[in-house]
Amino acid sequence: MAVTPQAAPDSPGEVADALREASYLADESTALIAFLAQRLGKPVLVEGPAGVGKTELAKALSRATGRELVRLQCYEGLDEAKALYEWNYRKQLLQIQATASAGDGDSAPVGMGEIFTEQFLLERPLMKAIASPDPVVLLIDEIDKTDQEFEAMLLELLSDFQITIPEMGQISATTHPIVLLTSNNSRELTEALKRRCLYLWLDYPSREREIEIIRLHAPDIDEALAGRLVDVVDMVRELDLKKPPSIAESIDWARTLILMGADDIDEKTFRDSLSIIIKHRTDLDLVAEKIVPRLGGASSNGSSSNGSG
Amino acid sequence: MAEQILAFCEDLRSEDVAIGTSEIQDAFKALEIIPWTEPVDFRESLATTLAKSPKDREIFDLVFDRHFFRATEAASLEYAPEAGEGRKAALSDDVREELSMEALAEAIRQAIAEGDESAMNELARLAIEAFGRQGESSGVVGVDMQRIRRGLGLSPSSDTSGDGEGEGERLDRDQIARFERQLRRELQRQQIQRQGQLPPARPLSDLNRSLPMRGAQDLAAVHKAVAQMKRRLATLGHDPRGAKRGRTVDVRRTMRSSLETGGVPLNLKYRPRRPRKPEIYVLCDVSTSVSSASTFFLSVLHALHDSFRKLRSFVFIERISEVTHVFEDERDFTAIAEKITSTGGVADVSGYTDYGRVWNEFYSDVSADLGPRSTVIVLGDARTNGRPPAEDAFARVADRANRTFWLNPEPELYWNYGDSVMSAYTPFCDGAFECWKTEHLEQFVDVVASGKVEHMPSGTRKYTSGHRY
Predict the structure, then answer these.
(1) Shared-domain flag, residues A283 and A144
(2) Residues of A with CB below 8 A from B34's CB?
(3) Which of B135, B167, B195 is the last residue of a domain?
(4) Distance CA A148, CA A187 (A)
């Protein structure tokens, strides 16, 4: 296939800059893999804990490259009729009835070819990504939520960028989509799928990068406060929580702190805004017990403000 | 270069990373457009094409360091044996003389705190030389490491307490570990120069992989395996008895397929059944004979509790005790472990496991709740200390439950030796597995998922007395 994506980047640095402009701060390996994905035309499998920006990476790539984002959200029980294509049976039935009444029994019965054509085809996300005349970014989100059979169905799409419809034949991609698959690693994906993908493990960002990310999304925040915030969030992540705070929640928290007009995170502000980053009752208790004493806030514990939401 | 990468792939394969030809091709394709003079990009491109899970990535990093370190050393031995000498001479003598031990230690601390890799490398070399001058070099890398570390007073614990609250000066374990890596590498390099040959390549020890026995810090690995287990147990293992009973017709799909027969719905399509939620009963041995494994088992229990809502857990030694509520109340792993051992009330007098009594108690107390949806998982070594195994009680339990699995923390080799009565129980289990590493846990999940143990030939089940469903 001689399809080259338009304006393929020349270096990983270029990709990083483009992503930055799309307000996504990619670290070195992320930029490199995004670059390789575009140049080699291979799908990328992104794994990592929840809330480190896996889905956001796809969105940013779509903004950075000016391509449309086609998203397929996976869930248990997702089948090909909802992911690939489906025949529009209502229209097909009408067509059969229309030809039958028009011919009034004299003409031969309707042949299969007439109702299995593109005009009766309902495009689902994967089909849409393949058939689109403009190159797109295809995001297959949370692939680990589906069954193994579904993975197997993806293989043809991922390696050859084509879909075979039994009644019609193959539909090949006219343009080369950038494909991202995300997984929360809740189960081991099949070797066959992995073999077709580049692999990217996204983890929580380093302290400096997270401060940068927060300041990018909440520009009003004071630098010292951002640093303090990231420190506290790091402490919280180190605990064994049911749901550790994600980057998105750090950003939300930063915005909340701005609204509250806080200039430091002391015990009281922390308790008041705790529910922004902690979303489990048991986690709340654990954090209140482990983190609050370490904050060493100015306020005394006399004001019994509770942080549960 | 190509050969070098192929050799590297071989190296990875020998460490059980699954690398196919297509992966190697991808790696080469990637290297065509990535300048391999950029160390970080080079490494990341190889990683993204070759290592496809976090565990593989870990091994990849270890092997990468080992392989390319050896490769460069081999090359430098071959081409320029005097290059090392030149580098050493570059450090002028007076600089070396000036640096006292204290100043050196201080400089190293500084470099570690700043995370400056190249400075650390330089200082590692200086430290080695300083020790070499004192005539303390032993020629054994590990011993030298110890001496230098002691000489410099680098240990995370003493530093953190010594410097107190000073945020900037505090050195954490990771940073020191980074310096020590440099130090070790430098020592190895010098040894290679001295001997003029490479040490034999050693495979990565198992220790570098996963070690579940350490309790809390390996919880993450256990949690991951259990998350998989949850998915598979949830969707599998319920005999679709009376498969057609109570199924609903999927009108949309029926109509769609009817078009192949000209609009006449000849084949009915049904909605797929939603799998029922399983009920899981976990019985965990916490006696001293499995004390090393019981931490692991407890963390498995701990992980299971996060995943299943209908899970009842029991611990036993001489008697059995339900601990479901402990897991519901507590989140912290150490607190749970403490509570279970202190208030579980499982040890009666002797503290020796009494499987027979446990089964009888479990049968009389709980088995009324067991049903066709229940899965019983036993974690224990089946060492009865000579007491009667009461396999008939166990068989009755297994009979009531849909499926029964036994995870034994001992390697299969040791089963049935000594007072282990594993063979008395295995006929009634749908599967018995050794389980002393997280990998085993994953294997267990795989076997359960693949359904191999689902329908054992009826002859292997002695007690099933006909109707078991």
Answers:
(1) no
(2) 12, 32, 36
(3) B195
(4) 10
